[in-house]
């Protein structure tokens, strides 16, 4: 069974930092483009970041560019999202996702990956 499990979420003050981790089980991430989506209450899901399977090419949503960094550790089957300078509008459930086909395989953030984590809540509030 293919699974992605996120960790590292929680409450952080505006301007603070947080690092999310996502561990894959049941498959290896080597051949997958992987990244993060988020969904805030009452809003549509948004593609946040992606890192390609080959070359480690990254893509970010304009809303997080310069503040968020995604990286991957294939040896440990893990992907990370380092978030800094957090704002209240970053509050959302964050989902890890992986793709071997379709637009997200090319790190197009509007794509629809075939493997999803269960999501983890990040709350930015004072």
Description of the molecule:
With 126 residues, the protein is mainly β. The chain has one helix at 102-105, and strands at residues 3-7, 10-12, 18-25, 33-39, 46-51, 58-60, 68-73, 78-83, 92-99, 115-116, 120-124. The chain contains one helix and eleven strands. Strands 2, 4, 5, 6, 9, 10 and 11 form a seven-stranded mixed sheet that branches. It has a four-stranded antiparallel sheet with strand order 1-3-8-7, with no helix packed on it. A hairpin with a 4-residue loop joins strand 7 (68-73) and strand 8 (78-83). The chain starts with a strand and ends with a strand. The model has no long low-confidence stretch (mean pLDDT 96).
What is this entry, summarized?
Helices cover 3% and strands 47% of the residues. The chain has 126 residues and is mainly beta. The strands form two sheets. Strands 2, 4, 5, 6, 9, 10 and 11 form a seven-stranded mixed beta sheet that branches. A four-stranded antiparallel beta sheet has the order 1-3-8-7, with no helix packed on it.
